[in-house]
Known about the structure:
The complex is a heterodimer of chains A (186) and B (239). Chain A is mainly α and 186 residues long. Chain A is built from eight helices and two strands. Chain B has 239 residues and is an all-alpha fold. Chain B contains eleven helices and no strands. At the A-B interface, helix 2, helix 3, helix 5, helix 6 and helix 8 of A face helix 3 of B.
Amino acid sequence: MTNHKDIYLNYLLSNDQKGIKTIYNEFLPKVEAILKGMGCSKDNAWEIFQESLIVILSKARKPDFVLSSSFYTYLVSVSKFKYYNLSKKKYNKELTIEEHNTLRSADDIEADFHQLERYRLYKAKMSELSPGCRQILELFFDQNSLKDISLKLNLSSENAAKQKKHQCQKKLIALIQSDASFKGLL
Amino acid sequence: MKITEDNKYDLIDNYLSGNMDMEASELFESILQQNEELNIEVNLIRELNDFQEFSTQESDLRASLDTIRRDHKPKGALVKFLLLFLIAAGLLFMFFKTLNQESDSQAYRAMAMIEPLEIVTKDGSNFKDIRVMQDLYNSKEYKSAYPYILSYLQSYPADLDAILAKGISLMEMQKFSDAHNVFLQIEKLNPRVKKYKWYTAINYIKQGQREKAKTILREIQSEQSYNYDKVSGILDDLK
């Protein structure tokens, strides 16, 4: 059992270039070989590898996340899921990789990919907001207090910042919820 | 707890930031369980509070991976180039080797050109295993034929055809030095029988001693002895 302090997860979380290079050198050829064996092209394998690392990053950020297999097993299962998902093939939820633990997590992986898609949707919808709204929400999401926001944006008061933030948040939520893909990503 | 459009975002912010007391928090959670729409909205806002940070991390990771990928690509291209270069060099080598083999073909044909032994047709020979010896020799099973040849030569030590067969068998068994001595033996026995020269030359070619082979071949050519008409092509090939 590997815990949250898995060395590879830490490389991703801290954007450790040397560590990420290790992941790249150590695992990309293996993942590429597995995916190519399933009929995936080299370019797609690279895209899937990259996307899988991003999914793992999003998962690893959660404080309660525990890696129940080796990093490699997890990476392969995420990559395989992504490939199956792309190619619309049936995916066997129980994945066994030689010399590694068995991982039964297709549902989790699907949820992780959905979360990633939601995040991308949020980002896209943020860009549809007015510059003023975008600015106030970005400051808020960056953990700035309402007092700081009011000062940075030259607003009359903390309360004015709060009202503005609520208005913009409401607009953003409406944009997200009205997107056709949103319900499918829940 | 009454939730309206006016207080909804305050309540959600308080709940998510942990600023709500336990009682209010439990009450809010029970409302969430009954109000799916609100539950979705709360989860959405929870993720919105998080996605900005994640977006930055994702961008950083993507940039790192792209950099590594870019750094690797030239190396990959170099490896590809080296690989292609090696393949091309290999093909060229094979091409020239084939050419060389083709140009050596006369010499190889000469080496393969061994006259059959026809002792069995000779009148007066009463050697009982002569047919076996001849068949083995003519079917190029020199190692098997060799003991029969030695046995035959004990009865007929001056049979030049049998001595030549002995020399050729030794040559084909790659005992080149022994073969050379046998060919010299023929020269001593009857220098007018020039087949020994031809096979001496072949023996040299088989050992890769081209210059020695060429010297003998030129002698064959000038003497117009056994197989002299084939020498010219072989000499060209051995240049």
